[in-house]
């Protein structure tokens, strides 16, 4: 494995910094999870897949990672002030917690299809009301929050770090003031840019808890502060989410944490860029979205056929997680071709004939290639560069096939194992299923085809060749 160091782009400093974990070999990572009031769309999935690769790579480097990804089941409001989950509960005539459970289940199902690993802890906002209340009490005590008409607001003007409020998103206070979108209870606030820590529940509000300020529910930003602090401590290594969460969500989290503990909560803030559809942000609320199952089943009018989750995952990883990415059928089809080419490379490698003598020179070449692959990952998890590097292995395989280089079982095993590490373990692409398990079947087919050719049964031999080509295995007949 490469001894070189990992560099991560830190949104807080807008630069790539060398990653050193805060506590020896352990890494604490918090990623904002979904608001479970409807099915996740492909954009949401892209963000969770980006962090899945980050999680997998940190684990691969030997870190003991505690990965906390929450479920927002309360507190995320519409612009009108209505809780998203309560609103959906009324529409579907279900209990709000039934809505939360239903969409939590479907979220987990979809991420499984995408081969996303489970986090270490998946806490819910509604399960941490006491923790949120105690942070609010502390902020009131520190004069950083005030009660107004049954709600509690964070007092930006009393915040010592007022100059740095908005630092993450790069927004000045004036900009924040003019964009303050909290349309409800503006009158309750001292300043229009103060944000809610606790909201008073109006008569018909379904989700409500007792608090020292009357019945209400917590503000959205507070839940992540309460849960990250509880499971990762006042200071932890990485806080992530989609880039659209920088403001207000993450800037507010920083203000609450700094006010409450005196410490900047996360050393690295990481933001995954948006998936767009027709060059507009994919979004639940605007309806400009595609649901993963629509794509997997071919049930979307913008796509002519079904696409496997593996292909979609591959498509996402062909773009840098910090770049915007537009999804379209032609882009997915290009990825499908690329994916099949990769399968073909691995198939060809598994079929090369070995010799008895070890080839140290070839092993060095393979190790050089391995290092190049690690360099890509160490450069802020650069998956498109890694995939390009993996395609470069084609040159090495060509030389072996053309007898320019001999390969023994030792180098062959080492080489195949690297594909397993990079493609399966780190990128989470299911290559084994497609290929290695099929090796023996493939061998039988090739023998049958050789036999058919010997007996001049070209109809059979050609049809075997054509069928294999359809699944990306191209045979080069030299004679
Ligand atoms: P939400 O359920 O809306 O809270 O979003 C869950 C996660 O998906 C958050 O990290 C969002 O930043 C992220 N997200 C939302 N829309 C997109 C998108 N179009 N592309 C990528 N990530 C997104
Ligand atoms: Zn959050």
Short description:
This protein has 16 helices and 13 strands. By secondary structure, the chain is α/β, with parallel strands linked by helices.
Topology, pairings included?
Blueprint: E1 7-10, E2 15-18, E3 26-31, H1 42-60, E4 64-69, H2 84-92, H3 96-113, H4 129-141, E5 145-148, E6 151-154, H5 173-178, E7 195-200, E8 216-218, H6 220-232, E9 236-242, H7 246-261, E10 266-272, E11 275-277, E12 280-281, H8 292-297, H9 309-317, E13 325-327, H10 329-351, H11 360-378, H12 383-401, H13 409-426, H14 431-434, H15 439-454, H16 458-470
The chain binds adenosine monophosphate and zinc ion.
Describe, in plain words, how this protein is organized in 3D.
By secondary structure, this protein is α/β, with parallel strands linked by helices. It has three domains: 22-272, HUPs (Rossmann fold, 3-Layer(aba) Sandwich), CATH 3.40.50.620; 292-433, Isoleucyl-tRNA Synthetase, Domain 1 (Orthogonal Bundle), CATH 1.10.730.10; 438-470, no CATH class. The chain contains 16 helices and 13 strands. β5 and β6 (151-154) form a beta hairpin. The longest helix has 23 residues, at 329-351. The chain starts with 6 loop residues before the first strand and ends in a 9-residue tail after the last helix. The relative contact order is 0.12. Bound molecules: adenosine monophosphate and zinc ion.
């Amino acid at each position: 494995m490469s001894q070189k160091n990992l560099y991560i782009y830190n949104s807080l400093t807008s630069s790539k910094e060398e990653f050193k974990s805060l506590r020896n070999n352990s890494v604490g990572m918090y990623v904002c999870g979904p608001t479970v009031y409807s099915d996740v769309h492909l954009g949401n999935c892209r963000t969770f897949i980006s962090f899945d690769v980050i999680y997998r790579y940190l684990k691969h480097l030997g870190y003991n990672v505690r990965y906390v990804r929450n479920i927002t089941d309360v507190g995320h409001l519409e612009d009108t002030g209505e809780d998203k989950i309560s609103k959906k509960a009324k529409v579907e005539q279900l209990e709000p917690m039934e809505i939360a459970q239903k969409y939590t289940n479907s979220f987990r199902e979809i991420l499984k299809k995408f081969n996303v690993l489970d986090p270490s802890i998946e806490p819910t906002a509604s399960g941490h009301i006491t923790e949120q209340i105690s942070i609010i009490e502390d902020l009131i005590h520190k004069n950083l929050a005030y009660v107004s008409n049954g709600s509690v607001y964070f007092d930006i003007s009393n915040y010592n770090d007022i100059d740095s409020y908005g630092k993450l998103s790069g927004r000045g206070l004036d900009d924040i003031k003019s964009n303050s979108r909290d349309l409800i209870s503006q009158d309750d606030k001292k300043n229009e840019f103060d944000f809610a820590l606790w909201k008073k529940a109006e008569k018909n509000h379904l989700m409500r808890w007792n608090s020292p300020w009357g019945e209400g529910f917590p503000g959205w930003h507070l839940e992540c502060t309460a849960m990250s602090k509880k499971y990762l401590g006042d200071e932890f290594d990485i806080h992530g989410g989609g880039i659209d969460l920088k403001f207000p969500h993450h800037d507010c989290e920083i203000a609450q944490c700094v006010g409450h503990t005196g410490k900047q909560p996360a050393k690295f803030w990481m933001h995954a860029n948006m998936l767009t559809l027709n060059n507009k942000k994919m979004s639940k609320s605007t309806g400009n979205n595609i649901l993963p199952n629509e794509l997997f089943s071919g049930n979307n009018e913008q796509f002519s056929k079904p696409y496997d989750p593996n292909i979609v995952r591959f498509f996402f990883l062909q773009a840098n997680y910090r770049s915007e990415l537009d999804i379209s059928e032609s882009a997915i089809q290009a990825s499908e071709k690329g994916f099949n080419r990769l399968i073909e490379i691995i198939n060809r490698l598994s079929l090369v004939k070995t010799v008895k003598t070890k080839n140290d020179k070839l092993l060095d070449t393979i190790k050089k290639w391995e290092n190049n692959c690690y360099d890509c990952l160490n450069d802020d998890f650069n998956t498109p560069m890694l995939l390009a590097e993996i395609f470069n292995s084609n040159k090495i395989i060509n030389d072996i096939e053309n007898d320019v280089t001999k390969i023994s079982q030792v180098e062959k095993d080492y080489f195949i194992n690297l594909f397993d590490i990079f493609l399966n373990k780190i990128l989470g692409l299911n290559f084994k299923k497609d290929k290695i398990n099929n090796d023996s079947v493939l061998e039988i087919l090739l023998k049958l085809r050789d036999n058919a050719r010997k007996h001049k049964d070209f109809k059979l031999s050609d049809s075997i060749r054509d069928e294999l080509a359809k699944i990306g295995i191209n045979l080069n007949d030299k004679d």
